[in-house]
Amino acid sequence: MTVPIVIIAAVADNGVIGDDDRLVWRLKTDLKRFRALTMGRPMIMGRKTFLSIGKPLPGRETIVLTRDPDFAVDGVHVSHGIEDALAKGRALAAAAGVDSLPVVGGADVYRQFLPMAERLHLTLVHARPEGDAAFPEWPRAEFRETVREPHPAGPDDEHSFTFVDLERVRG
After folding, report:
1. Nearest CA among 38, 36, 9, 10 for reference residue 25
2. In this structure, are strands 133-134 and 16-18 parallel, antiparallel, or unpaired?
3. pLDDT digit of tens for each residue in the chain (171 aa)?
4. How far apart, in whole angstroms, are the C-alpha atoms of residue 123 and residue 140?
5. How far is CA 65 from the centre of its chain?
6. Coil, helix or strand for 122?
7. What is the DSSP string of 144-168?
8. Domains in the chain, CATH or no CATH each
């Protein structure tokens, strides 16, 4: 069996996921969850998402999907197409013996991988920030909710938010 593709995203009430290639909120609790969901697993992300992070994250293999033929960074796997990114991700996931292949952004990468995602781990951020990147429309009827965990705003989290996990329903 192939390793399932899992999308991990934080999405505001208005669909915004970022602005000017950066996050538009401070949610320490969400960052901890992101770390837990990705640690030890290869991650697929777009070039702009990678550049906003600035470096490969410790304990995770990074696959950067880019159209830029000259893009190269030490310690990062570069792919120029979705099939190559999937092949590299699945090989790395199998070698690591992990249970998922996370896709972590940005908007265009999410759009490309949504049709094949088995699970979504969403953080629904209860805010309506300005932004130039939005989570793509997705077929909600094809997924069922398995977890819903609300969190209030607090000292480490500037907005209230809800963790929602969804699983694709196979007919």
Report:
1. 10
2. antiparallel
3. 689 999 999 999 999 999 998 889 999 999 999 999 999 999 999 999 999 999 999 999 999 999 999 999 999 999 999 999 999 999 999 999 999 999 999 999 999 999 999 999 999 999 999 999 999 999 999 999 999 999 999 999 999 999 999 999 976
4. 15
5. 13
6. strand
7. EEEEEEEE--BTTBSS-EEEEEEEE
8. 5-168 (3.40.430.10)
* The dihedral formed by the CA atoms of 80, 82, 83 and 86, expressed in degrees to the nearest 10: 110
Answer yes or no: are the C-beta atoms of 36 and 165 closer than 8 Å: no
Whats the size of the chain, residue-wise?
Answer: 171
Q: What is the pTM of this model?
A: 0.96
d(CA 137, CA 135): 7
Tell me the C-alpha distance between 168 and 144, whole Å.
6
